[in-house]
Design goal:
alpha+beta; 23 strands; 16% helix
């Protein structure tokens, strides 16, 4: 069943100055999630600047742009929200990718005033296309297009019709599932939380943006896949005293391996294999996040105690050990990459690859294709420029246990890090 009661993690994205920060500010204000003293602190030239509710960095306020992802929390009577305001500038695409990697939904803002809205064959802005493609690559299940600033055009009905048609045509060509297309005015608040003051504005009679968001499901956990667990922290025997009402201790005072279950589930008596050393053991005890003994499913934190002492460190993986559910490891990967570094990606370079909490050296074997964000065509390429999207082949120093990203977000995603500067260089999605 689709979960529409848990907190929804969503981001806003799109091109520069499309009104993303203002939209979030409008959601916060109209849903009564902003205190009066906070609202008084975001005044500019005697008027409330809604964008300042999310643009918290001094450089953002000075320049009137969003640089880093700002997270805000608010709730309505129907559900809770965790919303991230992603920057629109091309040079900050890496921040947008970071926010979208864990999002359940995305609102793509489209500024009607920047488009030739009177032309039925209008072209979308490159950054709108790029962000939409990244949402598809990052498996964001629900995508809502919000066409903003329609109150500032001469004929809002024609503008909405033409822009909606262009968005749906692009989405169909790119294979992007569209949940809804809604006209809004973030500045005036029309169709954001409350319906427009003008009946049938833009020829639209559907629900408001907030009403759509309240009905969106969260991303389901990968509980049907084989068990996989990345060790984040090793608790030594006696390191922590048991809290009242929790499990008093672990079998024979053994170590507890803490982390989050990536896929499947874990329970007492289950056989597991440790990667990369390949040893096997049985699960003697499973603790939940409050140290109570119980089985734990994907998406939740757990502490695992094994039936014997095995060399397990931070970064190791515990995997299902059975005939049908064993996940294979590989030193060769084919992946889609969103290149985030300022330096061009060329074959032959070596990077650190982060998978879960494990670091391994990775060498770029070959660049297979580059994706043209305008035509969606795969082009031959010998290098990838900053913010380009392409397909590459990697050779790893040690095998990693992965699954295609379309099957598992947790097992199918990696991050490439420059070995010298330690900058995040690329976001990898395993094919």
């Amino acid at each position: 069943m689709q979960d529409t009661r848990s907190a929804l993690r969503l981001i806003t994205c799109g091109s520069v100055d499309d009104g993303k920060s203002t939209l979030i500010g409008r959601l916060l204000v109209d849903s009564k999630a902003v205190l009066q003293d906070h609202l008084a602190g975001v005044q500019r030239h005697g008027q409330t600047d809604l964008a300042l509710l999310t643009d918290g960095l001094s450089a953002e306020r000075e320049q009137g742009i969003t640089i880093d992802v700002a997270y805000r929390y608010f709730s309505t009577e129907r559900r809770k929200f965790i919303i991230g305001d992603a920057p629109g500038h091309e040079q900050y695409t890496r921040n947008m990718v970071t926010a979208a990697s864990s999002a359940d939904a995305a609102v793509v803002l489209v500024d009607a005033t920047k488009l030739a809205w009177a032309d039925a064959a209008l072209k979308l802005l490159p950054q709108t296309r790029r962000h939409s493609l990244l949402l598809k690559l990052l498996r964001v299940p629900s995508v809502v297009f919000a066409i903003n600033k329609l109150d500032a055009v001469d004929n809002s009905t024609v503008a909405f019709g033409h822009i909606e048609a262009a968005l749906r045509a692009f989405a169909a060509q790119a294979g992007i599932p569209v949940t809804a297309v809604v006209p809004v005015s973030a500045l005036k608040g029309w169709n954001v939380v409350d319906a427009s003051e003008q009946a049938g504005w833009c020829g639209y009679s559907g629900p408001t943006l907030l009403a759509i968001l309240e009905r969106l499901p969260v991303t389901p956990a990968d509980s049907t896949l084989p068990f996989a667990f990345a060790v984040q922290w090793v608790e030594k025997p006696g390191a922590l005293a048991a809290s009242p009402g929790s499990t008093s201790g672990t079998p024979q005072g053994r170590r507890v391996f803490w982390g989050r279950v990536a896929t499947g589930g874990v329970q007492t008596g289950q056989a597991v294999r440790i990667m990369p050393n390949g040893q096997t053991a049985l699960v003697a005890q499973v603790l939940n996040h409050v140290r109570q003994a119980q089985a734990v499913l994907a998406g939740h934190s757990a502490g695992i105690v094994l039936d014997r002492e095995v060399d397990v460190s931070r970064g190791d993986w515990l995997l299902a050990e059975d005939t049908d559910g064993t996940l294979p490891g590989s030193r060769e990967l084919r992946a889609t990459v969103a290149w985030l570094d300022d330096e061009t990606l060329v074959p032959g370079r070596t990077y650190w690859a982060l998978h879960g909490h494990r670091w391994v050296k990775a060498k770029v074997k070959r660049i297979v294709h580059r994706l043209d964000i305008h035509t969606l065509a795969e082009e031959e390429a010998s290098q990838l420029e900053p913010n380009a999207i392409g397909h590459i082949e990697l050779t790893l120093q040690e095998p990693l246990v992965t699954l295609p990203f379309v099957r598992s977000r947790a097992l199918g995603s990696l991050v490439l890090v420059d070995t010298a500067s330690h900058r995040t260089a690329g976001a990898l999605l395993v094919q």
